[in-house]
Design brief:
Length: 437
């Protein structure tokens, strides 16, 4: 299908570009194979799923869109007819539309004018002139994939799917058209049952790319920032290098435990709190403000209802969000750590709602010591997560005891610990103004 260029051939080719007319250059730019990296090109051979694991901005979306284009127009594999029915599946309908279809690297952008499909958002459908149809699906609605049949599918950011394994398994029953139905999955790796299932399948071909591999198409300021902040960290290896990392054996939380605690809805709760772990500063470079809503039922089981942590927010912004969560969830109280802000934390919250029921807590023990009894509640099967808590769970599974003491990115975990401690580990009685934990 394509031949790779060696170093001298690529140099000669770059010189030839200088002599191309404007029209010829536009034609070349429309030819994906002329400048795509090898990892972005569909592999040869007999495979059922092409899994592209990539860091943020590594060119995954462009590779996925170009593969769908080639399948729809019959350009790949060579000699095969065009795919007739294609499934486009993303975390939400909004994600499919804004990223996979309408995005800067989406399907509408990678086609030449005369070959671009007709896009009907209201029907969740794209139709090519040759009759090929692509349908849009959300991983939030696994049952919407029941019934339709496909000979190709593009699944984007699958590690962030709310009902990942259920959506994927439902899709597999629909991959029954054509002689060799194939699927492409593009995602930043994250430990979840779906990726574990796909990676372990013998019919899966895996490509990998890091953020730096696409440096020519990314702003230097973005690369400098994420590299300086995350290079060398476990999170950086996952989000920048696109590495599939096994569970950290030293972490307080394990993936299998967290997967077992996921529920679709919570029962009637006897008490609900909003926990706030405020940052020490605000503006660019500041830590996030941890905001977690949790409740407890009459049986003493805890439920994490929402992780609403905000990045680089000003005090008025995180205080306003905390009060909003208190009102939306009809919470009983806001629990706020005051180590970083002292009385200012209470003043900011009460400037938004003067009558806000508020418990201020001051940490006198290390993060690890506070987190251990909460992690034990999970091990005992007493805490549940409502729906997708992927960002919170990712951080939980990186919480090594020795690494927590000075960690600046544990805000959402700290907020969760404060919430569950207040609900499940603190003796009930008159609410103190400040608790020392």
């Amino acid at each position: 299908m394509r031949s790779a260029l060696n170093g001298s051939e690529k140099l000669d080719a770059s010189h030839e570009l200088l002599n191309l007319s404007g029209r010829s250059l536009r034609t070349l730019n429309a030819s994906w194979g002329s400048y795509a990296r090898d990892d972005q090109m569909a592999p040869e051979g007999d495979w059922r799923v092409w899994l592209f694991l990539g860091g943020r901005g590594a060119g995954k979306t462009r590779a996925g869109a170009e593969w769908v284009r080639a399948r729809a127009l019959g350009e790949w594999p060579e000699g095969a007819p065009p795919a007739r029915r294609i499934a486009l599946v993303g975390p939400t309908l909004h994600d499919v539309r804004q990223v996979m279809v309408e995005g800067v690297s989406g399907l509408l952008q990678v086609h030449k004018d005369h070959e671009r499909p007709v896009y009907e958002p209201s029907l969740r459908r794209l139709t090519w002139r040759n009759g090929t149809v692509a349908q849009i699906f959300s991983a939030e609605e696994p049952n919407s994939l029941r019934g339709p049949a496909f000979d190709a599918a593009w699944c984007d950011e699958a590690a962030a799917w709310k009902y990942g394994l259920q959506t994927w398994q439902t899709l597999q029953f629909g991959m029954r058209l054509g002689e060799t139905p194939r699927q492409m999955m593009t995602t930043t790796p994250r430990h979840c049952p779906l990726l574990k299932d796909v990676i372990g399948a013998p019919s899966t071909f895996i490509s990998k790319a890091g953020t730096g591999d696409n440096a020519d198409n990314l702003p230097a300021a973005f690369l400098d920032y994420v590299t300086a902040r995350y290079a060398g960290t476990r999170l950086g290896r996952q989000e920048l290098q696109g590495e599939w990392l096994e569970d950290n054996p030293h972490a307080l939380w394990r993936r299998d435990v967290l997967e077992r605690c996921r529920v679709a809805e919570a029962p009637e709760l006897s008490r609900v709190v909003v926990a706030v772990d405020p940052p020490a500063s605000s503006g660019e470079g500041a830590s996030a403000c941890g905001l977690v809503v949790a409740g407890v039922d009459r049986e003493g089981h805890g439920y994490v209802l929402e992780d609403a942590t905000v990045e680089q927010a000003r005090p008025t912004e995180w205080a306003g969000e905390a009060v909003r969560l208190y009102e939306v969830h009809e919470a009983d109280r806001v629990v706020a750590e005051v180590n970083q802000g002292g009385e200012m934390v209470a003043e900011m919250l009460r400037s938004v709602n003067a009558s806000l029921p508020l418990t201020l807590v001051r940490a006198t023990r290390g993060k690890h010591m506070r987190a251990e009894p909460v992690a034990a509640l999970y091990e005992q099967g007493r805490v549940f997560h409502l729906g997708d808590m992927s960002q919170l769970e990712d951080r939980m599974c990186l919480t090594e005891p020795g690494a927590m003491a000075g960690a600046s990115d544990m805000d959402r975990v700290d907020a969760c610990v404060w919430a569950l401690t207040d609900l499940m580990l603190k003796p009930r009685g008159p609410e103190p103004r400040i608790s020392l934990l």
